[in-house]
């Protein structure tokens, strides 16, 4: 069986597809991934065939961080926000246009096209053009539901999400119309999520059901087409793991900080804030650099800055995890049974923070609104014994990575057949 997987975004967005692709390859299938140029090496290092599709995603991630930071801090700067919005839209238009010929070519003769959430629409149109089954891989409950916003009534949440689907479609309609003309398809008359569902596509939910209580029951009407498999993570060891584990063992359990592949705007200020806050609490800090350059930051004896580490190996030895709110990092923290604090930047991340609060295993705050004082208060809150006890309880309900990968691959196999 030939399977093509299209994934776009940062490493955390692409990694779930890599996990499924490797399991399908292990089962003897012909697998190829279409990813942004800057992540081709990452995919090939995982033992998979990869083609560059679209534009370099790192520039887009940085631009989005700047836009949402400006939007949250200085919403009155209309001209600046409009300029950044235009630039983001122009990037999306060019990326969409460059994706189409590559994805159309690589998906020719495939038995199934599996797409991630970002740039799901162009992949859906290519699958329609080739008349092949489409499967989607969601690390977030993006389809309309009543569980995403715990503080709002369910009908209102569903209505808001449905309206958002329509607004996104209207905002990208010119790009989609151009692609469908190029492919010889009729103009779309409704949003892509609705068309994907009407085609009977498989929509894999690559996160744990426990994270969104009640969602599985609400989606039971889809008759198994929105199955939950749990978070998909590679859990690959890194060269730094042993050295970091030794540093942790030499003192008290640290607070681990990680901000994903989106670079921080002020690394030095962030380290200074972390160092001061942890000093007040009598805690050590482990900072995982991710996409941020921490080479020129102040040095603190109780703060250790490292590159990438295996979250599966390191998180269980920490007393808490502070991160950006990415789905993979959230799942790693829940599997490790440690309290979490989300300092979010992008618009999907506060929803995960809300679920942590709902589960009573963590808290959240906008990163741009975080200060030394607020960080101390938030850490003091989640380091309370009851948060640790609940986090350990949730950990027992989480899926195992190997089981999640096997479940997702089996679903893809069965659906393609």
What do these coordinates show?
It is a single chain. The chain has 417 residues and is α/β, with parallel strands linked by helices. The chain folds into two domains: 2-231 and 400-416, Rossmann fold; 241-395, Rossmann fold (3-Layer(aba) Sandwich). Helices cover 50% and strands 13% of the residues. It has a six-stranded parallel beta sheet with strand order 3-2-1-4-5-6, sandwiched between helices. Strands 9-8-7-10-11-12 form a six-stranded parallel beta sheet, with helices on both faces. Helix 2 links the parallel strand 2 and strand 3. The longest helix has 30 residues, at 154-183. The N and C termini lie close together (9 Å).
Summarize the structure.
By secondary structure, the protein is of the alpha/beta class.
Could you give the topology of this structure?
Elements: E1 2-6, H1 11-26, E2 30-35, H2 40-45, E3 49-52, H3 57-73, H4 78-106, E4 112-115, H5 120-130, E5 134-138, H6 154-183, H7 192-198, E6 202-205, H8 215-218, H9 241-249, E7 255-258, H10 267-281, E8 285-288, E9 303-306, H11 311-314, E10 320-323, H12 327-336, E11 340-344, H13 349-359, E12 362-366, H14 372-382, H15 385-395, H16 401-416
Parallel strand pairs: 1-2, 1-4, 2-3, 4-5, 5-6, 7-8, 7-10, 8-9, 10-11, 11-12
Helix pairs in contact: 1-16, 3-4, 4-5, 4-6, 5-6, 10-14
Shape descriptor: globular
CATH architecture of the largest domain: 3-Layer(aba) Sandwich
CATH-defined topology of the largest domain: Rossmann fold
CA-atom Rg in angstroms: 21 Å
